[in-house]
């Protein structure tokens, strides 16, 4: 398709499409003449990916990192996946060089991960995220009890298992793309679902309570 | 304790404590003389709450709403809880008056909630959050399949159940305070745990794969 059709199909303005082409966020089309190029479904998908990540709050510099990793065919898939997820927010407020981060201890996160028997790379940003989140809990006077770790751990594992089971296993670019999109886009779904589950459970409890109170009167 | 001790105990600077007092974010101390007041554990806890919500990105105007709801003893607890959770981010980009929101349809969120058999108030911000999150999925070419709804729904319900089970049921202010803090502060814990569960599962899968490949060679 021509660039005008790509604009019509995706709703991304022409100036933005050209900007993404210049910045390497969108792969070039197939040159058909001195002034024209042809685009296909991979361009439609890439634009959807870029728009989704921008809408999720990623700066374009981070989107570029993700896009380059999706197109990376040289490094081991597991390493590429890890680096792609690292490029997603939240970004650690004090991001340090790998060596310093690796040398640092994350005692709260380690306690949780060891209790759950999980393998982890201490340099992985999610370890720092977990440590920061647990620090914030403590600062507010809450604590992550063993009971909560066990229940959260079991259910989060169930969620992660379906995430991986539904991930396309080939071609390789699809795996990386789906992993990045899935991490970025299902997080707000899960957050909203938890709040709605609270509302549902609380409604049932409070309705029961007011029912019981009426019976006692 | 005197205000200087409150500063020492909490690490919140004196100027900030005075500002919070003026703005009604911190309840006044007990007046002991023309120039002095006495503070206690409730002030320490309130400062921890305010700091935790500010650190989570809440503007002070929203923190004030939460604080007023914690101190609200007149309205039904279920309504107060709902309004307190509403005050937390993310804020819907186009927040409309209640009437308009109530009149609006959220077809994607409704499909999920009806499949899960959950009660919900269509004016609740989390319904809009869920709708927006599902729209973003669709825009990126992903979809929320029934299989994923069922698995996510079951595990999120398990998480919500332990959340409610561990919530203090009295006094009433503690319930509201713990619900707000729990919603705000366990969300990043769960997000980080999901990413780390992905890493753990992926590591096991890829280690198995490379092991199998070596055996085949």
From TrEMBL, chains A, B:
<dbReference type="InterPro" id="IPR009061">
    <property type="entry name" value="DNA-bd_dom_put_sf"/>
</dbReference>
<protein>
    <submittedName>
        <fullName>MerR family transcriptional regulator</fullName>
    </submittedName>
</protein>
<dbReference type="InterPro" id="IPR047057">
    <property type="entry name" value="MerR_fam"/>
</dbReference>
<keyword id="KW-0238">DNA-binding</keyword>
<dbReference type="Pfam" id="PF13411">
    <property type="entry name" value="MerR_1"/>
</dbReference>
<feature type="domain" description="HTH merR-type">
    <location>
        <begin position="1"/>
        <end position="69"/>
    </location>
</feature>
<dbReference type="InterPro" id="IPR000551">
    <property type="entry name" value="MerR-type_HTH_dom"/>
</dbReference>
């Amino acid at each position: 398709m021509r660039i005008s059709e790509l604009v019509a199909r995706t709703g991304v303005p022409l100036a933005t499409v050209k900007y993404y082409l210049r910045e390497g966020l969108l792969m070039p089309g197939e040159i058909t003449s001195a002034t024209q190029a042809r685009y296909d479904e991979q361009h439609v998908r890439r634009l959807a990916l870029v728009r989704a990540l921008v809408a999720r709050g990623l700066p374009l510099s981070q989107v570029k990192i993700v896009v380059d990793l999706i197109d990376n065919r040289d490094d081991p898939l597991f390493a590429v996946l890890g680096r792609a997820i690292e490029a997603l927010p939240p970004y650690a407020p004090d991001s340090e060089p790998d060596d310093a981060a690796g040398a640092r201890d994350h005692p709260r996160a380690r306690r949780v991960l060891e209790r759950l028997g999980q393998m982890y790379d201490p340099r992985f940003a999610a370890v720092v995220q977990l440590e920061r989140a647990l620090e914030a809990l403590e600062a507010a006077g809450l604590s992550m009890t063993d009971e909560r770790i066990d229940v959260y751990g079991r259910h989060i594992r169930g969620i992660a298992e379906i995430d991986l089971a539904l991930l396309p296993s080939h071609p390789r670019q699809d795996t990386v793309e789906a992993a990045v999109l899935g991490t970025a886009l299902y997080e707000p779904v899960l957050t909203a679902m938890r709040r709605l589950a609270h509302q549902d459970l609380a409604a049932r409890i409070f309705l029961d309570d007011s029912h019981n109170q009426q019976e006692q009167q």
